[in-house]
Structure formats: C-alpha cells, structure tokens
Design brief:
It is an enzyme of class 5 (isomerase). Its cofactor is Zn(2+). Pfam families: KduI. This protein has a single domain, classed as Jelly Rolls. By secondary structure, the protein is an all-beta fold. A hairpin with a 5-residue loop joins strand 3 (about 35-40) and strand 4 (about 45-50). The strands form 4 sheets. Strands 1, 3, 4, 5, 6, 7, 8, 9 and 10 form a 9-stranded mixed sheet that branches. The chain is built from 1 helix and 22 strands. The N and C termini lie far apart (about 35 Å). Helix content is about 5%, strand content about 45%. The model has no long low-confidence stretch (mean pLDDT about 95). The structure holds ligand LADIRMRS and zinc ion. Zinc ion binds near residues 189, 191, 196 and 238.
Length: about 270
Amino acid sequence: MVEVRYATAPDQVPGMTTDRLRSRFLAEDLFVPGEIRLVYSHEDRIVIGGAAPGGAPLDLPCPDEFRAEYFLERRELGVVNLGEPGAVTVDGEEYALGNKECVYVGMGSRAVSFSGGPFYLVSTPAHAGHPTVSAGLADAEPVRLGSQEGSNDRTIHKYIHAKGIQSCQLVLGVTVLAPGSMWNTMPCHTHERRTEVYLYFDVPQDDRVVHLMGRPDETRNLIIADRQAVISPPWSVHCGFGTRNYAFVWAMGGENQAYEDIEQVAIGEMR
Ligand SMILES: O=C(O)C(=O)C[C@H](O)C(=O)CO
Ligand SMILES: [Zn+2]
C-alpha cells in the first residue's frame, strides 16, 4: 500500500537508465479502483497518493511507516478531485468536491474517507492544526500566464498557500492549460528550499506529457501518461510539454511557503 522512495542526489542522475529514473521519480500507478495507494518520498517527507473509490467509500489508512496512531497525527493533507463529483468526509463532516476542487485537511483530523472522485492526495509533516477548508477553482486566485503564441497560455489556481488556505508547510494548486497550449512552467525554475510534485491529469489516453527534470544544465526527460506524478527534488527543474493541452496539480513542502522564492533558469543555461 505504501511505497518508500529515498532521496536522490543530483550527481546520481547522469548514470541512470530510463527505468531507474522512472522508478526513482515517477509514480505511475497511484489510481487503482477500490484502493488507496501511497508513495512516501524522503524528499521533504512528502507523501503522495491516489484514492479511487470503486463504488464503496474508502477510509484513509495509517501506514506503519508513519509510526502514528492515525494518518494526520503529525501531518496535514491536500486533496484534489480529478474526476466525478464526490465527497471527502472528515471526522463526520462531509465536504462535497467537484472536478478540480480541493479540500485541505488539518493535523489532528482522525477519520478521513472518500467517495466518488478519484482523488489525488498530498501530505506533508505538520506541527500545528489548521482548520479543514474546501475551495473551488474560482476561490483560488486564478492567474493567467503565458500566451497562445508561446503555446503556454495557462491559468494557475493557488489553493493552499501563504495568502490562501492556511497550512503548516503544504503549498498546492492546479494549473490548467488552454486548448492549443502545451508548455507548462517555461521559462523554468528550481527552488532550493522546497520539493515539488507534479501530478498530470486530463491527459487523453493516446497523449503524453514530456516532463523535463534534472539540473538545468543536465536535463533528462520522463514521458508521462494521465494521472501519473513526478517528484521534483529542490535541485531539479520541473517543466514540460504535452502532445495536447492538459492540467496538473503542483504541490510543495519544505523550508518556506514563498511561491516567489525560486531560482529562475535562463533558457541559455539549459542543456
Ligand atoms: O504552469 C506553471 O508555471 C506552474 O504551475 C508552476 C508551478 O506552480 C510551480 O512550479 C510552483 O513552484
Ligand atoms: Zn516550481
């Protein structure tokens, strides 16, 4: 149920085969009907997961790896609905979630269950309880970036961040590309103080996203299908282009919550 991924140093990347790269950084099978699947990354101890209720509601388990009484004893959780209307129930209170809507579940919440969806989960360690809050795309400070000419016309919706839903360290949002736009996060960046995870979705079955990762001057690519997630350590760029437009959930954890605290990469630095 939980797969543990240890952290990777940037100097390990040049010798890696495609399979090695994928097994380290890509989570390919998070969404299996009737299951909750989790990946525990040692990069900032971010846990990502998929909850795909196959009819009956699914309860969030507490993995042995947490050495905790319940999942959110020392953690917080962001949930995004990737599919059909559904609900997340937290200690008896139901939060109805439509497609691309989000609920933040604070530390100390004991019983979490899912129906409908499927739902994408991101959890980071926490030190204080913040209120559980749900939000829709319109609540999430939509910011339009890029252009049609640059094939990167996209809207960034920030859900959990310093000026939005409050959390201990989790930062999370959804970016939606306009029809005809394929590039995300270009020009790209790194952020030495935070790990980021991208979960690509709304990618049709016969399409793919080519995700670029690695040090800016030594990039590698991962060919990513629908509902697959890529772990981006602090030293790695994270950007990509699709064979058509798509959406993705981005989530971060680490030293700070400052979205603007990034190292911008000039296109000429990239190799
Ligand atoms: O399309 C984009 O650009 C993004 O969504 C960028 C992410 O939000 C990100 O990388 C935050 O650090
Ligand atoms: Zn980033």
